[in-house]
Amino acid sequence: MTEIDTPRLLLRQWQDSDYQPFARLNADVDVMAHFPTALDKDASNQMANKCRQLINDNGWGFWAVELKENRAFIGFVGLHRPTITLPFSPCVEVGWRLAKAYWGKGLATEAAREALAFGFMTLGLDEIVSFTATSNKQSEAVMKRLHMDYKGLFEHPSLAKDSPLLKHHLYGLTKAKWLSLK
Ligand SMILES: CC(C)(COP(=O)(O)OP(=O)(O)OC[C@H]1O[C@@H](n2cnc3c(N)ncnc32)[C@H](O)[C@@H]1OP(=O)(O)O)[C@@H](O)C(=O)NCCC(=O)NCCS
């Protein structure tokens, strides 16, 4: 099972003690502002179980992110194969969700950079995508900081046609471009 070490972070398999802080961040309406709803404890635990299971099965996924200085669980960052069919499927996405106290420190970008390196070098992916509701400027800014290329708009198929979150921006980074940045 892969663990990824960055200067300030450890990306690792989920553990039981992550569930409580994860439920707290999933109940935070600011963290979940660009999702249809915040998550209650059961839904949060289900998501943590799913992340844990996928890492168990595949060795990679949405890793739990731990701050090295105090070993606090701060959220997740990693790679995921969306189960829903998207206009650009099959694909592997890079994604992130951190507790609000840890925004504005460059931590999501630091973790995602290493997740991309894992995807290209260890998994041998040719391209990794990322997408977000058009309102989520903070998430889009992470994609830009990672030098991902804008690929256009799409309508997320799991959202209602009248949802304000329906329209999503799609970004992608090819292995060739990633290598050229090194
Ligand atoms: C999306 C999300 C992870 C982005 O977090 P973030 O903290 O804005 O992004 P980063 O970790 O890359 O940090 C970048 C910010 O830290 C600042 N920063 C401070 N110290 C830094 C350092 N040492 N290195 C780099 N950047 C640093 C940058 O200047 C930047 O600030 P700015 O936004 O004012 O320009 C966060 O908003 C989140 O978890 N949102 C809720 C969940 C969500 O929407 N997920 C995405 C769904 S698609």
Automatic annotation (TrEMBL):
<dbReference type="GO" id="GO:0016747">
    <property type="term" value="F:acyltransferase activity, transferring groups other than amino-acyl groups"/>
</dbReference>
<dbReference type="InterPro" id="IPR016181">
    <property type="entry name" value="Acyl_CoA_acyltransferase"/>
</dbReference>
<dbReference type="Pfam" id="PF13302">
    <property type="entry name" value="Acetyltransf_3"/>
</dbReference>
<protein>
    <submittedName>
        <fullName>N-acetyltransferase</fullName>
    </submittedName>
</protein>
<keyword id="KW-0808">Transferase</keyword>
<feature type="domain" description="N-acetyltransferase">
    <location>
        <begin position="9"/>
        <end position="180"/>
    </location>
</feature>
<dbReference type="InterPro" id="IPR000182">
    <property type="entry name" value="GNAT_dom"/>
</dbReference>
<dbReference type="InterPro" id="IPR051531">
    <property type="entry name" value="N-acetyltransferase"/>
</dbReference>
